[in-house]
Amino acid sequence: MSEWKNLCTMHRSQSERFGNRVAMRHPHDGLFHDLAWNDYRRQADQAASGLIDLGVQVGDRVAILSENRFEWLITDHAILSSGAADVPLHAPLSPKQVEYQVGHSEARGIIVSGLAQADKLFEVLDNLPSLEFLISFDEIDVPDCRLKTLTWQGLKHRSGTVNDEEIAHREAALDEASLATIIYTSGTTGNPKGVMLTHGNLLCNAKSTSDISFVSMDDVLMSWLPYSHIYARTVDHYLTSIGGLTVVLAESVDTLMDNIKQVQPTWLTAVPRVYEKVWNAVGTLDLETRTSALRTIFGARVKQLTSGGAPLPRYIAEGFFESGIPLLEGYGLTESSPVIAFNSIENYRLGSVGQALGDVEVKISDAGEILTKGPHVMTGYWKNPDATAETIIDDWLHTGDVGRLDEDGYLFITDRMKDLFVTSAGKNIAPAELERILSRDEYIDQAVVYGDGRQFVSALIVPSFEKLETLADENGWTIESDDDFITTPEALTFLEQRVEAVMQQVSQPERVKRFLALARPFQVEDDELTATLKVRRRHIISRYEEHLAALY
User: Fold this and answer.
1) How many CA atoms lie within 13 A of 152 on its CB side?
2) What is the CATH number of domain 35-174?
3) pLDDT tens sequence across 262-306
4) Please, are residues 46 and 75 in contact by the beta-carbon 8 Å criterion?
């Protein structure tokens, strides 16, 4: 399957191969600093030795709770080289969520970015008896507690007590079946499930995706998606090591566009939300002006943009291609490491998520569900055999997504099985497609459709506030709100006309008849968006169901 038996040997051999070449560039005090491949590996070995000296054993779990930073990537390799598996936690998690994932995984230690993340842990420490140590990238004042605490530098300084032979021995014992990570899904109801991915899962998926990416050692990837999420973990982290690319870490989501201008990358991985925002700014321009604007935004060197994590509206991909910038959509999920299918520069079909990777099998069940089989499929859910048995049947992973394959093997996604609903008149509704249609309107930024068991379809709508406020100023309106909802009659009448117009392209039973206009966007902090900015439909509906029910 691969020339490497595990992720450790892959990274070690690539670091030796590339030596003094720049592996990553990371921001600090407004400047980007280079880290060479050999120094990258050296620091990972130091940290691995420190972890072993702390008592980490083969098969243990060590959690990471941090925003994106270069130490995160080094830490991942250090944990793997110690023979342990890491448990990456999303940085915005609440203390109770941290408690569940650290406790459920029985992590022996945790590595945090700084005081803000450490405080979450200290708040719930009494409920985490398995936790023995805490390491912080930044220096912090630690309250008296039972944990052994170290700084990142302090961890690496412990490396003198463990020799290279011990690391080599542990790495040699790891094979394709060895557990590499437990990633908790962003469950919409109940506790999240811990997806168990092996070295073989991640290595084969990164290699297969690399094979169709058409990238080289001269390419530069702009990286900003959270490394706690499987998309960035496999593509931005492991794939780039396989290809020898230089990874440049963005300072933050808010500075992404400014960082792109500074760095001039050749490749950007992102989620549809990023491209939707860009398109809202340039989509109405004539082709020549739009092309110039996109080149200004993404830089003169960009060769391709890729999108995953949520459905990409076809018209946006078409617009980018028309402007000479390939925007390529793919598909996967945490349980599949994640990539199942992807479009490439040489083989693409707009509107699809591409063809299956070379070692991936895909078929459509009689019920229309997408099933997949291959070395990319997880070994199961951590300590949850019942959920595993429901999801993997006869080696086929049931994705929960509805789709179809065309005659050339291109995969098209229709909706989530669990999101499909039926109106009281018996009409089957695919909400994702209606939401895509709504958000295509320049005055509608986000939408969530509702109507299971109801006599008609309704929706929650987040307007494009900049455009709506400009319209309000031009017409002398004042945008007012009450209890999270816009109440200005003129604005609601205007939005009603926009909704009615875009709904003409679907059948009468599918059309959104009534809606509520939110006075704020959906937020990650409110659990309304996932870490990759995908709308958590069921959570949002649960929050606003009383208001939606009042529409009927």
Assistant:
1) 19
2) 3.40.50.980
3) 999 999 999 888 998 899 899 999 999 999 999 999 999 999 999
4) no
